[in-house]
Amino acid sequence: MLQPVGVGNKALADYTHLVGRTLIKEIKGHAEQLKGLRVLHLSATAFGGGVAEILYTLVPLMRDVGIDAEWHVLFGKEEFFNTTKIMHNALQGNPQDLTDEEWEIWERYNEINAEQLSKDWDVVIVHDPQPAAIRSLVPDNAKSWIWRCHIDLSTPNPGTIERLGPYLPDYDGTVFHLQDYVPPVLMNGDNRQPYICPPAIDPLSPKNMALSPEDAAFVCDQFGIDVNRPLLCQVSRFDPWKDPMGVIDAYKLVTQKIPQVQLALVGSMATDDPEGWDFLTQTMAYAQGDPDIKILNNLNNVGAIEVNAFQSQADIAIQKSTREGFGLTVSEALWKVRPFIGGDVGGIPLQVKNGETGYLVSSPEECAQRSIEVLEQPELGKQLARAGKEHVRQHFLTPRLLRDWLGIFRDVSTTSPP
Ligand code: UDP
């Protein structure tokens, strides 16, 4: 069954002191004309990863301004999620494409979910490739269809994008984080221009709300972190593109100069990510039992508050990805005024101006060298971190994302056939 997700309540007014009255007024102005619009978000999972993170805030805020928004997650068994994980990796450039049998599995689950999709939506937003075929199966169930892509499609596996591509031009709108991610199939003049709209974080969620240094230290201490010694921390799924082993390499280089440093790799396991478990085991083996490397996940009871505590406690927040659609963890860390070092890929440079709001690196050696610089010069770290927080405040908080979505709804509702 397609599962409705309960998202609770949030009030846009609570964000006024963070984003300013002008933006709040602008949002209310847009929303006035969209009251009662029936919007459905369709995604693969309600737990783990960036899409779920965004929707838990975006959907209640849409409701708060009068949109009749819902969020449903797909029905899928292991064979479907195994297949969509291969597809996800292939679309981000992995050489392994889906077999014909796997494409059939993907189509079959899209059919099963399409059959269950209720009718009379004004807008259905299909998140990522997992449900991308549903529009072609039940086009009349919504007045407008939008495909929201959260991944880096700049160098996809040619076979995979060739097969997925034909599903995309029929959407009334497509949305990408960066112009570079728009696939050629959407670039010919007959298609509507894709919307470019990066995601955002919720500054008031348990993961990002202000936590006192004492509380952060108290939580980290319970996981065996020595809160009086420097801490490097990466929060992310256990996924090769997030390069946790590269982070371990960087940490080892840092210990040669600063032996008291510790590393925490905090990674939740998403329900649609079977590969994550294998990779977690490999990462643990790579750490070779070093007691100063803590590898934690949601099975160790790491939830939003714990992630908040680790990000707040870190002397340096790292996101050493080698591919990254956007990287919510980057804005999350910067919002907590942490010195940040991340891979110079995908959506990370959008959030980090090298040398101004953090550092961008392309190897474990560079990551280690920048870490040492920041650890040895705390004032430098503070300056980068303060600039980073302001950059996030201006560009990457959910009210800005809500405003962008309302603009897209207005566009597609005025131009789609009745
Ligand atoms: N996350 C979490 N617990 C973890 C690991 C990750 O809550 O143990 C969250 C993280 O804080 C962020 C999201 O999962 O909000 C990951 O989003 P991002 O865009 O960084 O990467 P994705 O997983 O979508 O590739």
Verbal overview:
- With 418 residues, the protein is an alpha/beta fold.
- The protein folds into two domains: 217 residues, Glycogen Phosphorylase B (Rossmann fold), CATH 3.40.50.2000; 183 residues, Rossmann fold.
- Helix content is 43%, strand content 14%.
- The protein is built from 16 helices and 13 strands.
- The strands form two sheets. The protein has a seven-stranded mixed β-sheet with strand order 1-3-2-4-5-6-7, covered by helices on one side. A six-stranded parallel β-sheet has the order 10-9-8-11-12-13, sandwiched between helices.
- α12 links the parallel β11 and β12.
- α3 packs across α16 and α8 packs across α11.
- It is globular and about 60 Å long.
- The two termini are 29 Å apart.
- The mean pLDDT is 95.
- The structure holds uridine-5'-diphosphate.
- The site of uridine-5'-diphosphate (UDP) has 19 residues, from α3 and α12.
- The site of uridine-5'-diphosphate has 19 residues, from α3 and α12.
Structure at a glance:
By secondary structure, the protein is an alpha/beta fold. The chain is 43% helix and 14% strand.
Strand tally is: 13
- Portion of residues in beta strands equals 5-15%
Question: Level of helix content?
Answer: 40-55%
Shape: globular
Number of helices: 16
CATH class of the largest domain: Alpha Beta
pLDDT < 50 runs, ≥5 residues: none
CATH topology of the largest domain: Rossmann fold
Which structural class fits the helix and strand makeup?
alpha/beta
Task: Record the strand order, biggest sheet.
Answer: 1-3-2-4-5-6-7
When the domains are counted, the total is 2
Average pLDDT value?
A: 95
